[in-house]
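Project standup — Tuesday

K.O.: blocked on the structure for the chain from last sprint. Re-posting the sequence here as requested.
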Amino acid sequence: MKVEIWSDIACPWCHLGKSRFERALAAFPQGDAVEVVYRPFQLEPGAPAEPRPHREVLAKKFGPQAVAMDDRLAKLGAAEGVTFDFDTVLENNSLLAHRLMRFALDEYGPAAQARLKTRLMTDHFGEGMDIGDPAQLADAAAAAGLDRDAAAAFLAGDALTDEVLADLDEARSLGITAVPTFVFEGQWAVQGGQETSTFLRVLEQVAKETAAVEAPADADACADGVCEVPVERPAATA
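H.V.: unblocked you, prediction finished:
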């Protein structure tokens, strides 16, 4: 089974969703046979290159409710062992980090890419990392098991920029407007940082569907809070 996860390093729900999905994958009997690939999405593609304090950025977008939004995520994260220290989070354009993610996939494979994703989001949301700083990105690559010099050399150029931009265009063409979006076997899409139990049910259901000769023509589009739609037109949610 192949799962493509469209997400942004700058998205806290993507961080939480990754943790929950990986817990489900660990509980899934065929988890070792699941290939997970991360695809890029930018919540704010026009973000400036200079880092900005998260609290200020969110307050401008959402006003007084911004603090409550952060507090809720911090509590949900704590229950999952995921740290959100929003007082130290720096907002920045995530394109450079997405390029590094693609580099990790192409040069080291999906497992290394997943390790890098964890490191980037852990450092971004918990350690005040600037995801637009090539030196800090290279350090994160090294911590994830990649060669630091190779990562630094890659970040100094513009390789894979066109490929990442093409992936971003593909997300738009698929109708993906919210992340994380999990696409299973190129056929079913589930949006949001769902509960671990929900992800596990989806994995089990997709395994059954792909094992069947022909899926039932009248299968429900949505069940148990999980909406499954053709990847050509995934349902958009806020």
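K.O.: great, moving the ticket to review. The first helix runs from residue 12 to 27. The two ends are 28 Å apart (CA to CA).
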